[in-house]
Specification:
It comes from Pelagimonas phthalicica. Helix content is 38%, strand content 4%. It has a two-stranded antiparallel ribbon with strand order 1-2. A two-stranded antiparallel ribbon has the order 3-4. The chain folds into two domains: 134 residues, Orthogonal Bundle (Cytochrome Bc1 Complex, Chain D, domain 2); 89 residues, no CATH class. It has twelve helices and four strands. With 301 residues, it is mainly alpha-helical.
């Protein structure tokens, strides 16, 4: 009996050790960013395309460049709150280095080595180029600092165990693009799948919160519990590429309706991008294949 007990204890210890190894945070190699210099002007474009202000500005504030956070994001796993990412050295990211931002947006790992929740769309941002991350860091450090502390997430057991997110990453973390596209669609793919992280809202998720890539952009329930996020696939969205590009610029649909909800923030971002970028996004959207399974997505916003 003692021998069996010892074997069981040894197996348990080995199991825990393997689990800790498998769920350990991964980090970006520091030498990738050692020689990169960020450009503030270029970083502003990355910031806009990536929608940073849309989530991290203070809810209801007129100045959307004060990134003190606080916006709530309800989900089946709890309510997440956007943190302070202003250059304040205590409450924000003022004491970060560019490698810290790279680990955050590309690996979902904090400077202290903790996993971030995937409510932060690092599973899209991980496709960004190193130069874009360096430029984004330069721009973020140029913005106003704010000392408002980040609001803690309202997440209960077992989802409040950060280490378990390492297991989630083993299942769903990927820096591969979903769609294979020709060269003329690569810019649109980069904007949609990486910077603008469109799939985070427009693609349905499985029971563990991972994106169901077999139904890419096929619409999804609204995390707030009110309605659905519309499908962008050709079986649902019948707009032309010109209609899509104009919507991203103006917020007006071909049916003379206007944008609403959180999508208004997205349109505000895209309206500040170039016409070429909006056209690139529209071309990618029109190249989407029809989903393999039927969805309840709608084409009206």
């Amino acid at each position: 009996m003692r021998r069996i007990l010892k074997l069981l204890v040894a197996a348990a210890v080995i199991g825990v050790a393997v689990g800790l190894w498998l769920t350990a945070p991964d980090r970006v190699a520091p030498e990738r960013f050692a020689s990169l210099s960020g450009d503030v002007a270029a970083g502003e474009k990355v910031f806009t395309a990536s929608g940073c202000a849309s989530c991290h500005h203070v809810p209801g504030a007129e100045d959307k460049l004060i990134l003190a956070g606080g916006m709530a994001f309800p989900s089946d796993f709890g309510t997440f709150y956007a943190p302070n990412i202003s250059p304040d050295p205590s409450a924000g990211i003022g004491d970060w280095k560019v490698i810290d931002l790279a680990n955050a947006v590309m690996k979902g790992v904090s400077p202290k080595g903790q996993h971030y929740y995937p409510a932060f769309p690092y599973n899209a941002y991980n496709k960004m180029t190193d130069q874009d991350v360096a430029d984004l860091f330069a721009y973020l450090q140029s913005l106003p600092a704010d000392a408002t502390p980040s609001k803690p997430h309202d997440v209960g057991f077992p989802f409040n165990i950060r280490r378990s997110l390492g297991g989630w990453k083993l299942l769903f973390f990927s820096d591969d693009y979903v769609m294979d596209v020709p060269a003329d669609l690569e810019r649109g793919r980069y904007l949609v799948e990486a910077q603008a992280h469109c799939a985070e809202c427009h693609t349905p998720r499985n029971a563990l919160g991972g994106l169901d890539t077999s139904r890419w952009m096929a619409g999804a329930p609204n995390p707030s519990g009110k309605g659905t996020i519309p499908a962008l696939t050709p079986d649902k969205l019948t707009w032309s590429a010109e209609d899509v590009a104009y919507y991203l610029e103006s917020g007006f649909t071909p049916e003379y309706d206007s944008v609403g909800g959180h999508m208004a923030e997205v349109v505000d971002n895209f309206a500040h991008l170039s016409a070429e970028d909006r056209a690139a996004v529209a071309a990618y959207v029109k190249a989407l294949p029809a989903p393999k399974a039927d969805t309840s997505g709608s084409s009206s916003y």
